[in-house]
Design a protein that fits this description.
There is one protein chain. This protein is an alpha/beta fold and 264 residues long. It is 33% helix and 25% strand. The protein has 11 helices and 9 strands. The strands form 2 sheets. A 7-stranded mixed beta sheet has the order 3-2-1-4-5-9-6, with helices on both faces. Strands 7-8 form a two-stranded antiparallel sheet. Helix 5 (120-125) links the parallel strand 4 (101-107) and strand 5. Helix 9 packs antiparallel against helix 11. The longest helix is centred in the last third of the chain and has 19 residues, at 222-240. The chain is globular, with a radius of gyration of 19 Å.
């Protein structure tokens, strides 16, 4: 059975067009801790939403992307760069040299990494003074959405796509699932968290394109997906003047690997 995370590869061009980039302050924070010409593994880069910023900070990037179409578009986007190596593989199965990287970075992708690879693999790949850097896009509860996400839930629920889980946090409480894992793990030390407000405003057509780029939407039967997008489009036009603001906080989680135990 095809994994849900593989659906993005069918919409590489749409993904490239509609998925947002990330605040520059985030990369300034990360690279203040890294050496010049840092060696970086990027996990699940998509079509390069964070890759360009990594390259612009003079990193040598090894990008591990599961989708062949996404990887192809990533290569085209940065075809003039000789400091990018793209590997088509899952992160779990990618053959990478141990203890060779200054940072392992994942931007809105690490929730797709499973099992022991989540912490053991980055620990294995990083140099002793390296950094594990996880970037999460967190939708928060804020008045800037003008009540859109509360009012739109009946449409999502009509098509089995309603919100599940805890309520959206307020901006100052936005966190990352990886933080709790790092705090419990013996593989990393001193995890820290940084927040960046990053609201995104979309026209009706742009918001529909964004919804189409979600894995859950891609997995829907075509007739239901078409009906959902049509209902959503009418709702945005009729009740929100053709624009939607997504209140977002980008969360950067950083941690050092612990010292490795020598084997005798």
């Amino acid at each position: 059975m095809r994994e849900l995370r593989e659906g993005f590869d069918d919409i590489a061009d749409l993904y490239d067009r509609i998925r947002p980039r990330y605040p520059e302050e985030l990369f300034t924070e990360l690279f203040s801790r890294l050496p010049q010409r840092a060696e970086v593994v990027e996990v699940g880069p998509g079509t390069g939403q964070a890759t360009g910023a990594l390259l612009n900070h003079h990193a040598r990037v090894t990008a591990v992307e599961l989708g062949a179409n996404l990887a192809s578009r990533l290569r085209r986007n940065y075809s003039a760069r000789d400091d990018l190596d793209v590997i088509v593989s899952s992160f779990e199965e990618a053959a990478l040299p141990p203890h060779s990287f200054d940072a392992v970075v994942a931007a809105t992708s690490y929730h797709w990494v499973s099992g022991t690879s989540r912490l053991e693999k980055p620990h294995e790949l990083l140099r002793p003074d390296g950094w594990f850097a996880i970037i999460d896009t967190v939708q928060v509860s804020a008045p800037t959405d003008h009540g859109f996400f509360e009012r739109v839930q009946p449409i999502y629920e009509r098509y089995g796509q309603g919100h599940q889980g805890p309520p959206a946090p307020v901006p100052d409480e936005a966190s990352s699932p990886i933080m709790a894992e790092l705090e419990k793990s013996a593989l990393f030390r001193s995890p820290s968290l940084f927040r960046y407000r990053w609201d995104q405003t979309y026209s009706t057509s742009e918001y529909i394109a964004l919804i189409r780029s979600y894995s859950g939407t891609q997995a829907m039967p075509e007739d239901q997906r078409t009906a959902l997008l049509a209902d959503m489009s009418r709702f945005v036009e009729d009740h929100f003047g053709g624009y939607v603001t997504r209140p977002l906080v980008i969360v950067l989680t950083l941690a050092h690997p612990t010292a490795r135990t020598r084997r005798i």
